Amino acid sequence: MPEQQPRGEVPSIWAFITADVLAFALFFVLFMAERGRQVALFDQSSLQLDANLGLLNTLILITSSWLVALGVEAARHGKRLALRRWLLLAMLVGAGFAVTKFIEYSAKIGHGITMLSNDFFMFYFALTGIHFLHFLVGIGVLLMLWMQARDRELSGTFMVWLESGGIYWHMVDLLWIVLFPMLYLLGRSA
Amino acid sequence: MNNPFQYWRLCFAAGPVFLLSYFGFWGILGFNVPPLAPSLTAAEMASHFQEHANQMRLGMVGAMTFAPTYMMWGLGITKVMETLEGGNRVLSKLQLWGAGLTVIPIYMCCVFILAGTYRPDTLDPGSIQLLYDMSWLTISICYSVTTMQMIAMGAIFLSDRRKTPLIPKWLCWYSIWGGFMFIAEDIMPFFKHGVFARNGLLNFWVEYSIYFFYMLFVTYYLFKAIARLEQEYKAGTLVFPGNGIAYGLKANA
Q: Is the pLDDT reported for residue B185 higher than 70?
C-alpha cells in the first residue's frame, strides 16, 4: 500500500475563503436586520419556499463535500483511480443542486414571484443567486482537478490545488448550511 | 547601460494618482461619492444638475483628464507579471487589456454626466435623469473587464515560487475574490432603493471599498517588488536576455 504523502504547505486559498465568508456574513446581518423591520412579511414569504427542496440541497452539498474529502484522502495515499472516482461522484451528486435550484427558481418565477416581489425575495434571489455562482465555479474547479488528476503527480503543487479546491467546495456547502435555515426555516418557527 | 526597470515606478505611482484624482473629481466634485439616489425624481435630479452644473463639469473634465493613469498602473503590473510568466504571457497581456478597457467605462460614465451638465436649463428632466442613470449603469455593469484584470493578476502572482513571493498570496486571492464579487453589481439595475441599489451599502460602499483597498495594497507591494527585482537583477539571478523581452529567474535562483 502506498505511503501517505506528508502534509504540504497550508493552502493560501484561506485568504479567499476568509474574505468570502466575511462578505456572506455581512449579507446575513443585512438580511436579519431587514427581517427585524418586516418580520411578518419575511415569515409569510418564507412559507412560500419549499423547505423540502432546501433540505434536499443541504444533503446534496454535504454528501458532495464528503466525496471530495474522500478524494483528497485517496490522493494522499497515492490512489489515483480512487481520487478520480470520488471527484467524478462529487460532481455528479453536486449537479443535483443545480437541478433542484432550477426547479425551485422555475416554480417561483412561474408563480410570478421574482426578486422585485418584496424585500424577502430580493434577498432570497440575490443571496441564493450569488451562492449558485459560487457553486458553478466549484463544479468548474472539481472538473479541472478531475482532468488534471489523470496524469499529474499526486504531490506538491497538485496536492495544494486539490486541497484548495476541496476547501472551496466545503465553503460552498457551509454557506448553504447558513442560508437554508435563514431563508427556509426561520419563518416557520414563528 | 539599458535599465530594464525604467519607468516602472512611474507606472506604479499612476495608481494612487488615479485614485486620488478620481475620488476628488468624479467622486466629490461630481457628487458620485455616494451617488445621487436612484429614487430621486427626474425633477429633483434636474434641479441638482442645474444648481451644481459648473462644479460637476469641472469634476467630470478633471476625472477624464487623469483617467489614462489607470492604464499606466495596469502596465506597471504587467511589467512585474512578465518577470514571472514565461512563454506567450497571455495572462500578463490579459491584465493589461483589462486595465486598458477599464478606462473606457471610466470615460463614458463621465461623458454622460458632462452631457447632462452642458445644457441643464434646456434639457428635459427625464433626459438628465437618463444620463445620470446611464453613467452609473456604465461604471457598474462594465465590471467584467476589471474582473479579467484582477483574476489574471492574482493567478500569475500565485505562481511565484519565491520563499517570500513578490506579491503576498493573500493579496493574490483578494484580487481574485474582489474580481469575482463584482458580479453582485449585476443586481443593481433591478433596484432603486435598498442595499443593492447604486447608492446602497453593498453595491456602492462595500464593492467600491474593496476595489479602493485593492489598488492601495497592490501599489504598495509593487513598489516593494521592484526593489527586490532590482536586487535580483544586480545579483544576476533575474535575467533580461537580449532584446529585453524574455525574462526569467535562473534555475538556482
A: yes
A positions 92-121 inside 8 Å of B (CB):
115-116, 119
Whether B60 is in a domain gets the answer yes
Per-residue pLDDT at A83: 96
Summarize pLDDT for B47-60 with one digit per residue, the tens: 999 999 999 999 99
Q: Does A136 touch chain B (CB under 8 A)?
A: no
| CB-CB neighbours of A96 under 10 Å | 16
Phi, psi dihedrals of residue B245, rounded to the nearest 5°: -90, -40
Q: In a 3-state reduction of DSSP, which class is residue B15? A: helix
d(CA A90, CA A66): 8
pLDDT score of B243 more than 70 = no
How is domain A23-189 classified at the architecture level of CATH? Up-down Bundle (1.20)
Total domains in the fold of chain B = 1
Q: Does the CB of A26 have a partner CB in chain B at under 8 Å?
A: yes
What whole-number distance in Å separates Cα of residue A141 and Cα of residue A164? 10
B248 band by pLDDT with thresholds 50, 70 and 90: low
Q: Please state the domain extents for chain A.
A: 23-189
Domain extent at residue B12 = 8-249
The number of helices, as runs of H, and strands, as runs of E, in chain A is 6, 0
Query: Would B3 be classed as within a structural domain?
Result: no
